[in-house]
Amino acid sequence: MPEYAIEQPPVVGLPVAGSDALFPVRRVYCIGRNYAAHTVEMGGDPDREPPFFFQKNPDNLDATGEFPYPDKSSDVHHEVELSVMLKSGGTNISIDKALDHVYGYALSIDMTRRDLQGEAKQLRRPWEIGKAFERSGPVGPIHPASEIGHPDHGRIALTVNGEPRQEGDLNQMIWKVPEMISYLSDYFELAPGDVIMSGTPAGVGPVERGDVMEVTCDGLGSMTVTVI
């Protein structure tokens, strides 16, 4: 075993449904504007243009069921998403082989400092300050594809304090999961432990401290996250 100059940072491990095993996270890729209605909502063109991605950090993903409202922001939004966990990777993966690399799927929320993201957009700067902050990716248990298959349709929704906010269907994704994997592999070498957050339907909106978000998706159950 190598000797490190400082204490080795811990590996981020996410729970797997029905198992004591943890899924180790390597990288987190997030696709932007992957539902037509949300693209319009954010001022974009819903035509099928090449996808774009940004990243969160592995330790942004959090399975505790709590989201700490961040400092330095007064406009934090929820974005419900299906996350895709990879068990293998590579480069130049073909679309017809892409799903062979998927370990499983999980409910997740891309929490966004919308005010800071907006400032970054205006200044033509990267979005990390609005997207890749501490515990900005609440995530539920991972459901292995060997048990649930590969969901390509089904209702996905989010409520805040019981009030409906977001609702869509996985079949409304502009870029489907195999296409996202294939596209990413043309630009990055994908590997086991990579996570792809697959975009959000329309209805994104702000949360406040004390709010309770509930996420549901057909085949994946539900997840509750409290804003603290």
Account of the 3D structure:
The protein is α+β, with helices and mostly antiparallel strands and 228 residues long. The chain has a single domain, classed as Fumarylacetoacetate hydrolase, domain 2 (Alpha-Beta Complex), CATH 3.90.850. The protein has five helices and 18 strands. It has helices at residues 36-41, 114-122, 128-131, 145-148, 177-187; strands spanning 13-15, 22-24, 28-31, 53-56, 61-62, 66-67, 76-78, 80-86, 102-109, 112-113, 137-138, 143-144, 155-160, 163-169, 195-197, 205-206, 212-217, 221-227. A six-stranded mixed sheet has the order 4-3-15-8-9-12. The chain has a five-stranded mixed sheet with strand order 6-18-17-13-14, with no helix packed on it. Strand 17 and strand 18 form a beta hairpin. The longest helix is centred in the C-terminal third of the chain and has 11 residues, at 177-187. The radius of gyration is 17 Å and the shape is globular. The mean pLDDT is 94. One of its GO terms (molecular function) is acetylpyruvate hydrolase activity. Residues 28-227 form the Fumarylacetoacetase-like C-terminal domain. InterPro entries: Fumarylacetoacetase-like_C (IPR011234), Fumarylacetoacetase_C_sf (IPR036663). Pfam families: FAA_hydrolase (PF01557).
